Amino acid sequence: MAKSSWSYLKGERRIGEYEELTLRSVGHWWIGDDPQWPEEVREAFHVRSETGIDIVEPTRLHLGDRGAFRDPFKLTYRSYNLQQDGEEKKLDGLIEGAKAADAFAGLDGARQPGLAAILDSYIPGMRHAFWGFSLLQTYGAAYTPAGTAMNVLQFQAFDCMRHAQRFVELAWELPPGAAAGAEAEPWMTWAPLQPLRRFVEMSLCNFDWAENLVLLNHVLLPLFQPAHHALMVDIPRAHGDWVLPQYWLRLEEDMKRHMAQGRAFAAAVIKHDERNRDIVQDWIDRWQAPAQEAADALGPVIDAAAGAPAYGAIRTEARAAWEAQLAECGLQPAAAAAATTEGERDVAVGVPG
């Protein structure tokens, strides 16, 4: 029988599984809260506890209560694994079904010119993007003192490592020679992926764990995911393929969760302390331009392949949806004058200030 959330004998609310495993038993010991240490030591970076595993970095956010944010999905290690085990079985079944139907044989860039760029360059290159996302999330999970944020970031890292591996497995199933015309290493050389690579590399040089959570889940993904969806779902479906759309639609559920968690985090920290609104707005101003560049670079690929709506329409719809989400928290997209220029970006973005 499930435990009641209220104890009538004690007259108090019982702690649920999520709170017990995030607020009470997950989180970092933070030297900044320990008065037995000298102030100059407490304010230093890269300090370990006696266990050697508890490290934190400061954030610009004002977080008097580290539990101000709650995962809207209330995932714990147990519930996350139960959920993802079912998703993995669905993907395994999809691959086996596609093999049995010989569906992968049709995924050949030579036979399907409209899919050539996706098969030859996009799928092989994107595994590196997901791996980069996972590194960013792992960093945040390692350095935040907040147990609720740690849980979210760690599970997101698991998701993105899973996506990277699944894209490798997908590439294995493509017919021999399907990528014969591909660049030797699309992630490093294929022009449409270079803005995304630049975004990932810049973000990995950023030290603020909370900023990293926002820039990935509340800036990049809302702007980039619609273009990615067009390449993995709309275009293959228009060319008679069902494997790629079904494959990504299963993984896309993770990305939807990540974006919802990003929105919830921004809303929670602003509600917790109004001063955080300007800080989150500054992060949006700094990262919107490179995020939009990453999505826009895929526009010519989408339009050349045909089968999806014109990229201009995809971009307009994505921006409108994102701006509506920002408005819910009293935020707004970056003004044109605030967008970081290419020459300024190495200084303005990705370095601790």
UniProtKB/TrEMBL annotation:
Oxidoreductase in keyword set: yes
InterPro entries reported in the protein's UniProt record: Ferritin-like_SF, Phenol_Hydrox, RNR-like
Domain of life of the organism encoding this protein: Bacteria
Gene3D superfamilies according to UniProt: Ribonucleotide Reductase, subunit A
Keyword set includes Oxidoreductase: yes
Keyword vocabulary terms for this entry: Monooxygenase, Oxidoreductase
Name this polypeptide is given: Propane 2-monooxygenase
Organism: Marinibaculum pumilum
